[in-house]
Amino acid sequence: MKLKKYINLINMSQDCIFCKIVSGQIPTYTLFEDEKVIVFLDAYPVSFGHSLFVPKKHYETIDKVPEEDIDFLKKLPYIVKQIKKITNATGINIWQNNGREAGQIVPHVHFHIVPRYPNDSLFDFPSQKQLNENEAKDIVKKFNQNKI
């Protein structure tokens, strides 16, 4: 076994479906792959070309990715451009859910790249209310006082 492949296996979770895809145990329709990321078509797409952008290292949520490993995101603009071009989409949504309450189903950081088309009626955002000034000031204050 090559050392690089062995090191990648150390960074995987045995029960994670995305880690099994990265290691080749589960086949996918792969669009792109390099040493840091794999991009493949979603098995249950919500639109034509719906793809998943998955870092090869296993991190459950984005806040657990150390700064030195976040460079896998450098390929995201290229992938989005390619998917938009080949699907003739007029827009793209990029989703990234963290935690069950946010809709994360697979506990491995990943980004949904969802091509959008005129009148596709995929998603309606919930109604929004104007930002409350006191709440805004409180959040800004807490954010700046609680440095990680």
Write out key terms for the chains shown.
148 residues; alpha+beta; HIT family, subunit A; 5-stranded antiparallel sheet; 4 helices
Descriptive account of the structure:
The chain is α+β, with helices and mostly antiparallel strands and 148 residues long. The protein has a single domain (3-145), classed as HIT-like (HIT family, subunit A, 2-Layer Sandwich), CATH 3.30.428. It contains 4 helices and 5 strands; from the N terminus they run H-H-E-E-E-H-E-E-H. It has a 5-stranded antiparallel β-sheet, covered by helices on one side. A hairpin with a 3-residue loop joins strand 1 and strand 2 (37-41). It is globular.
The CATH topology, please? HIT family, subunit A
- List how many beta strands DSSP finds: 5
Q: What amount of the residues lies in strands?
A: 15-25%
CATH architecture: 2-Layer Sandwich
- Order of strands, main sheet, comes to 1-2-3-5-4
Question: What kind of sheet is the major sheet?
Answer: 5 strands, antiparallel
Question: Structural class given helices, strands, pairing?
Answer: alpha+beta
Mean pLDDT: 90
The ordered H/E elements are: HHEEEHEEH
Q: What's the N-to-C terminus distance?
A: 39 Å
SS summary, helix count: 4
- What percent of the residues sit in helical stretches (DSSP H or I)? 25-40%
